[in-house]
Amino acid sequence: MTSEQSDESEHEPEPHTPRHAGFKYAVGRMVAGPLARLVYRPRIEGRENVPKTGAVILASNHLSFIDSMAIPVAAPRPVHFLAKASYFEGTGLRGALSREFFTSVGAIPVRRGGGQAALDALDQQRQLLEEGLAVALYPEGTRSTDGRLYKGRTGVAFLALQTGAPVVPVGLIGTDRVMPVGAKTPSLKERVTVRFGEPIDVSTHGPASSGKARRLATDEIMAAIHELSGQELAGVYNEPPAQNPIDKIKRVLPHERR
């Protein structure tokens, strides 16, 4: 195999199954949903704002690992989200349990990263939306470790503008206390609040091909999330420290964060 072929295979999109609410998802939703609501007694506000049918993007702040469980539990319809492919690739009993759990909650495996991997992830989400499904995304890109709300990346707006799907902003409160970054098990002492805002039609900002439209749409989405979550605004992107001089140069050059 040539190096060119190796690079292409490395970025092949992960399989989408299960896209639809199949048996495992249905069982997981029937069991995990009521159990989570019983144990954590989440406060759920605005469920009526989530369209019952058709494509929709749930754009949320991101505070904890359990955010991707809190949203499907609180939503009135099946919700799909992308999860690291490593959660599906483990071996032995632990690997099997991880694979079954993430499959049952509607997770779709994806290779994380920039460049082609990021584009593949966007394409996977676009295909889900074109099938009329609900997709949960985090415009910040990664979890906030200090509780602040960071600037949104434009990938969510791009998908909304490209597919015509409405965006329902979501404000999560308390998930970082239930399961802080680094914790191995969730706390049973804290309660989570999940707030669904009114759907946003971002098409008024222009076409998906317009960088200005993507930026304006992203800012509108983040403003709605901020209103729901009440977090302090960071005013910057949530990015890891630059590892080398090239990364430092890229940070100061004007470019769009996807």
Tertiary shape:
globular
Q: Roughly how many Å apart are the termini?
A: 31 Å
- Using only C-alpha atoms, the radius of gyration works out to 18 Å
Low-confidence stretches: 1-21
Spell the H/E element sequence.
HHEEHEHEHEHEHEHH
Query: Major β-sheet, in short?
Result: 5 strands, mixed
Portion of residues in beta strands equals 5-15%
Helix/strand-derived category reads: alpha/beta
Mean pLDDT value: 81
Share in helix: 25-40%
Side-by-side strand order of the widest sheet: 1-7-6-2-5
Q: How large is the count of helical segments?
A: 9
Number of strands: 7
Biased composition (Acidic residues): 1-11
Protein name: 1-acyl-sn-glycerol-3-phosphate acyltransferase
GO molecular function, one term: acyltransferase activity
Keywords: Acyltransferase, Transferase
What does this structure look like?
By secondary structure, the protein is of the alpha/beta class. The chain has a domain at 43-81 and 116-233. Helices cover 40% and strands 12% of the residues. It has nine helices and seven strands. The strands form two sheets. Strands 1-7-6-2-5 form a five-stranded mixed β-sheet, with helices on both faces. It has a two-stranded parallel ribbon with strand order 3-4. Helix 2 (23-40) crosses helix 4, helix 5 (116-130) packs parallel to helix 6 (155-163) and helix 6 (155-163) crosses helix 8 (211-229). Residues 1-21 have low confidence and may be disordered. It comes from Microbacterium suwonense. Keywords: Acyltransferase, Transferase. One of its GO terms (molecular function) is acyltransferase activity. InterPro entries: Plipid/glycerol_acylTrfase. Residues 1-22 are annotated as: Disordered.
